[in-house]
Amino acid sequence: CEYFSRKFTHLSQPVTTGTIEDIYRVAVERADRRLELLLDRLDLDETWVFVTADHGESLTEHGIYHDHHGLYDVSVRVPLVVRPPGGLSSQQRTDEFVQLTDIAPTLMDIAGIEKPAMEGQSLLSFFDDDDSWESRQYILADEAYTQRRSMIRSDEWKLLFRPKDGRAVCRYCNQQHGDTIELFDISSDPDETDNL
């Protein structure tokens, strides 16, 4: 991949999959240390903390090297950690589909600001034990930066497709990642390797 070769020209050693994984691991560790420094300076009894990412990273999956496109789960499934002031008595985890669009309505609820019509729903229902959360049966996502693709994902299935007007070739490496239409049984193929 030409893009991959250009991205790591500053390294004195040959670039291998192990090199890519090491670079990523160091970056994650550095971000973790910086987050720890930030949290140490906050009054956590008075502060809501949200930790997330705008995308994941493909380290070699699907022929994508150290980048984040293709709408595969390695790129679109990101952590979302929410800690209310004072913390929780125990860790809680949900299997619900939540999206980054849920953060803005949550912050508006915390601030007591009336929400306009908008995408997303407040995550406060997970902390208030109310039943206002409306479960999603699926989520949608689009990619339009490196190539044009769309995604529909449920608990068990994932459909990736390229709209008719979509750019098929990745503008980074001049390759097409994946077929025009891809269908994965996520329950038996979580790595999305067997296009049905």
Main attributes of the structure:
alpha+beta; 4-stranded antiparallel sheet; two-stranded antiparallel ribbon; 6 strands; 14% strand; globular
State the separation between the terminal residues, measured CA to CA: 26 Å
Sheet with the most strands, sense and barrel status: 4 strands, antiparallel
- The order of strands across the largest sheet is 3-4-5-6
DSSP, total strands: 6
Q: Secondary-structure element sequence?
A: HHEHEHHEEEE
Helix content bin = 10-25%
Question: Taking all residues together, what is the mean pLDDT?
Answer: 82
Q: In DSSP terms, counting alpha (H) and pi (I) runs of 4 or more, how many helices?
A: 5
Rg over alpha carbons: 19 Å
Q: Strand percentage, roughly?
A: 5-15%
Structural class, from secondary structure content?
alpha+beta
Give the low-confidence spans: none
Shape: globular
Plain-language structure description:
This protein has 196 residues and is of the alpha+beta class. It contains five helices and six strands. The chain has helices spanning 2-7, 17-40, 73-76, 103-111, 125-128; strands at residues 49-52, 80-83, 139-143, 149-153, 157-161, 181-185. A four-stranded antiparallel β-sheet has the order 3-4-5-6, with no helix packed on it. The radius of gyration is 19 Å and the shape is globular. The two termini are 26 Å apart. The mean pLDDT is 82.
